[in-house]
Amino acid sequence: MTNQQPKNPLHGVPLETVVERLVEHYGWEALASRININCFKNEPSVKSSLKFLRRTPWAREQVESLYLATFS
Known about the structure:
The structure is a single chain. The chain is mainly α. The chain contains five helices and no strands.
């Protein structure tokens, strides 16, 4: 099977794009109120958020869910 994630709506969407679009749409403060993680609250940046989300599956799931709820 060549396409391993045919039903995944985030397939092909980089995590960086997900974070950038959410920040554009909500801003850091509103994003932090929706998803309670420190990388959105204390000196937030895309770079620090990506580092945290790539090693924290539960937080990444929350961010991806919010992205889908917002932009689908």
